[in-house]
# Entry
Amino acid sequence: MRVYKTEGPEFRAYGRILEGFEVTSLLEIMETIPLPQEGVCYVASLPELEAQAAAKQLEARAYGELPTELGMCYGWNRALNCLEYHRTSEIIVVLYEVILFLALETEIEAGSLPTSKVRAFQIPAGAVVELYATTLHYTPCHVDGKTGFKIAVLLPRGTNLPLNSGKEGEDRMLTACNKWLLAHPDSEEAGNGAYIGLTGENLILS
# Structure
């Protein structure tokens, strides 16, 4: 599988690197969070991250003062498994280099997206990345088998909270507040009842 760089023109439809943000304090805190022995952990809101000046700067400048939550996704992963999207951009701060599987919401047809539409992008360590609202994404893939991956995740406050929703049309994909998810049939999420919307091969990095 070809892995694209964020500096290339291919990335422009999916997101952009944000410049001018001082995130050293966030990276230092993320470094202290222990990795799970296996699998992935996600915490939507971490007070120790949200208390940092960098978090307030990101909220003020990158989200136009919209109330946000700053949490963390970390662990071990090498597979696509699912894709999700939100109604707003998601901003991530990357501690270690990762690879992201990305696709476009416009490529969903009749509630389904073939994995042949998915592209892989290499995100450098220390980067602050905006993933557009129209960009489908999910758990990063680690590059280094010794460090795993750790990213800070900035989203509108309340994203990923439990919800009560109907199950017709696009609502079939809703798994939490502001989270529409398409699962591959081979994924754990599909086994737990998530909407199956990815067709074709479940992409796995060698």
Notes: The chain is about 15% helix and 35% strand. The first strand starts at residue 3 and ends at 5.
